[in-house]
C-alpha cells in the first residue's frame, strides 16, 4: 500500500489517459486506444473525435468516421442513461450494467403494473431490428403498444419518459447522415442487428470487468468514482471489488482517502503529454465523482469548466499536467478560429504553445483553422 500526494495521483492517471501510442493513427490504433480508455461520454457529438485527436496525434477525420460508420466504435445510451462511445465488443458488458438501474427506473417512471421492464425493452428492440428508427417513431410505437396492455397508460408525457424509451441501452445510436461530429444521434437500432452481440453476461461479472478497466484507465480511484461512473450503488461496487480479489490493490490519497487500483497497472504512457486540446466531458474530469474532479485543476477553476446548473462541461486545455484553459471553435464559412480562455489563476500562454494540438484537432475534425486567440480569464479581463 502506498500513499500518494496530489501530483503523484495526477501523473499516474495521465500515464493511463495518454498511453504510449498503440500503433499508427489508423483504424487499428483507434480501436486499441478506445479499448484502453474505456467508454467515452459523448452527448456532444464531436467528443470521440477530440478524445482521439488528443491521444492519438495524426488521427484523421475520415478514420474516426469510418470507425463509427462500420460500428467498430459504437454509440449507445448506457451508463447513467448517458450516451457513450466504446469499442463494439464492450457493448454487452455496458448494456448489462446499464440495465441494473434502468429496469426499475422504467417501471417507476412509466407507471408499469402489468408489463415488465424486460417485456417493454424486448418490444423496443424488436421494433428497431429491421431498420434505423427515428425517436418519434419509437415513442409512437411504444405508446400504442403500452396503451393496449397497461390500464390507465396515457402516453409518454415528458422528455424523461421518452428518453427512457429511445435511450434504451440495447439500442445503438447514429445521426441521420454521416456528419457524426455535428449531428445528434437521433436514429436508433437494436445492437444485435448491427454488430456481433454475444450473450448478455451476468451483470455482476460484467461490472467487475468494467471496474478493472476503469482502474486501468483512470486509477487510482475511490469507490465513489466507480459508483458514479457506472451508475450503480456502492454495495454493487464493493461486491465487484471483492470479486476481483488480488487483481486489485489498496492505496491512500493526499487526504488519507482509500484508493483502489490494479495490482499490475498498465506500463508506459506519458506523465506529461504536453499541451492538448481536450473535448467536452473529457475523462480527466468525468472519470471521477463530482468532488474528485480537481485532480487536474483547482475547485475555483472547476467552476469555470463545469456548469452545475445545466450539467455541461466545457472543452479544456491540458498543459504542464494541469487543466489551464477552456476553448471553443468559431466558424466563419469554412474557416475556423479557435478561441482559448485561460482558467482563473493561469496567465495567458503564447499562441504557439497550442500549435501542435490545434493542428491535431483540425485534422480530426476536418477544420480549416486560420486563427488562434488566447484570452485572459474573466478576472483579468
Commentary on this structure:
- The chain is an alpha+beta fold and 381 residues long.
- It folds into two domains: 1-272, no CATH class; 276-375, no CATH class.
- Helices cover 39% and strands 18% of the residues.
- The chain is built from 14 helices and 15 strands.
- The protein has helices at residues 6-17, 27-37, 47-55, 61-69, 91-110, 117-127, 135-147, 159-166, 203-218, 223-230, 234-244, 283-286, 299-305, 355-365, and strands at residues 40-41, 73-77, 83-87, 133-134, 171-174, 187-190, 248-252, 258-262, 276-278, 306-307, 312-313, 316-319, 322-332, 335-342, 368-375.
- Strands 9-12-13-14-15 form a five-stranded mixed β-sheet. Strands 1-3-2 form a three-stranded antiparallel β-sheet. It has a three-stranded antiparallel β-sheet with strand order 4-6-5.
- Helix 9 (203-218) crosses helix 11 (234-244).
- The chain is globular, with a radius of gyration of 21 Å.
Please state the structural category: alpha+beta
- Number of H- or I-type helical stretches: 14
Helix % is 25-40%
Oligomeric state of this protein: single chain
Give the count of structural domains.
2
Termini Cα gap: 46 Å
**Which sequence of strands runs across the widest sheet?**
9-12-13-14-15
Q: What Rg do the Cα atoms give?
A: 21 Å
Amino acid at each position: 500500500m502506498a500513499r500518494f500526494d496530489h501530483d503523484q495521483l495526477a501523473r499516474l492517471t495521465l500515464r493511463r489517459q495518454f498511453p504510449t501510442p498503440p500503433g499508427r493513427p489508423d483504424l487499428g490504433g483507434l480501436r486499441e486506444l478506445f479499448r484502453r480508455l474505456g467508454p467515452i461520454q459523448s452527448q456532444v457529438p464531436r467528443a470521440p473525435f477530440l478524445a482521439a485527436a488528443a491521444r492519438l496525434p495524426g488521427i484523421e477525420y475520415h478514420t474516426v468516421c469510418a470507425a463509427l460508420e462500420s460500428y467498430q466504435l459504437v454509440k449507445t445510451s448506457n451508463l447513467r442513461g448517458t450516451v457513450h462511445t466504446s469499442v463494439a465488443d464492450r457493448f454487452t458488458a455496458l448494456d448489462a450494467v446499464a440495465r441494473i438501474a434502468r429496469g426499475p427506473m422504467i417501471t417507476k417512471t412509466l407507471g408499469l403494473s402489468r408489463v415488465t421492464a424486460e417485456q417493454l425493452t424486448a418490444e423496443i428492440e424488436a421494433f428497431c431490428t429491421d431498420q434505423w428508427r427515428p425517436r418519434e417513431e419509437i415513442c409512437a410505437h411504444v405508446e400504442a403498444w403500452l396503451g393496449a396492455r397497461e390500464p390507465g397508460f396515457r402516453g409518454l408525457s415528458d422528455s424523461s419518459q421518452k428518453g427512457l424509451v429511445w435511450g434504451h441501452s440495447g439500442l445503438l445510436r447514429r445521426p441521420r447522415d454521416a456528419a457524426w461530429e455535428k449531428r445528434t444521434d437521433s436514429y436508433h437500432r437494436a445492437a444485435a442487428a448491427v454488430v456481433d452481440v454475444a450473450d448478455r453476461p451476468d451483470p455482476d461479472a460484467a461490472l467487475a470487468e468494467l471496474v478493472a478497466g476503469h482502474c486501468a484507465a483512470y486509477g487510482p480511484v475511490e469507490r465513489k468514482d466507480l459508483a458514479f461512473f457506472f451508475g450503480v450503488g456502492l454495495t454493487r461496487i464493493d461486491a465487484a471489488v471483492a470479486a476481483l480479489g488480488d487483481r486489485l490493490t489498496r492505496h491512500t490519497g493526499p487526504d488519507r482517502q482509500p484508493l483502489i487500483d490494479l495490482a499490475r497497472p498498465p506500463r508506459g504512457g506519458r506523465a506529461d503529454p504536453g499541451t492538448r486540446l481536450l473535448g467536452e466531458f473529457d475523462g480527466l474530469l468525468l472519470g471521477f465523482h463530482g468532488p474528485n474532479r480537481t485532480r487536474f485543476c483547482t475547485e475555483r477553476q472547476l467552476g469555470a469548466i463545469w456548469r452545475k446548473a445545466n450539467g455541461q462541461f466545457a472543452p479544456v486545455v491540458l498543459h504542464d499536467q494541469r487543466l489551464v484553459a477552456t476553448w471553443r471553435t468559431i466558424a466563419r464559412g469554412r474557416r475556423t478560429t479557435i478561441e482559448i480562455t485561460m482558467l482563473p489563476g493561469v496567465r495567458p500562454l503564447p499562441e504557439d504553445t497550442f500549435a501542435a494540438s490545434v493542428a491535431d484537432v483540425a485534422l480530426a475534425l476536418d477544420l480549416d483553422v486560420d486563427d488562434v486567440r488566447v484570452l485572459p480569464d474573466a478576472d483579468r479581463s
